[in-house]
């Protein structure tokens, strides 16, 4: 079973044809302008995000260096350890869970 669109009825009036072309171009222009605005907003937002991130990294690096030289805290001396329960599995022993 094939789906076939009905035939397009073109107007014979040249004024109606010209108006439909102008309307189509106007819709295309609006979509193009909308796309450019969206791209501009995304680009500006990305640049602001990167600038804020770089600014925070620059400030954080300087403050972290002064903190480390002043007095190391107990939290900074704790090793980063992953805790959990582990089971040693040997190849020759059967494992029952």
Explain briefly what this protein structure is.
The chain contains two helices and no strands. The chain is mainly alpha-helical and 97 residues long.
What percentage of amino acids are in beta strands? under 5%
Low-pLDDT residue spans: none
The overall average pLDDT, rounded, is 82
Which structural class is indicated by helix and strand composition? Answer: mainly alpha
Count of individual beta strands: 0
Task: Provide a count of the helices.
Answer: 2
Instruction: Provide the gyration radius in Å.
Output: 34 Å
Q: Which H/E pattern describes the elements?
A: HH
Please render the helix and strand layout as text.
Elements: H1 14-70, H2 74-77
Describe the 3D structure.
The protein has 97 residues and is an all-alpha fold. The protein has a domain at 15-59. The protein is built from two helices and no strands. The model has no long low-confidence stretch (mean pLDDT 82).
Give structural attributes.
mainly alpha
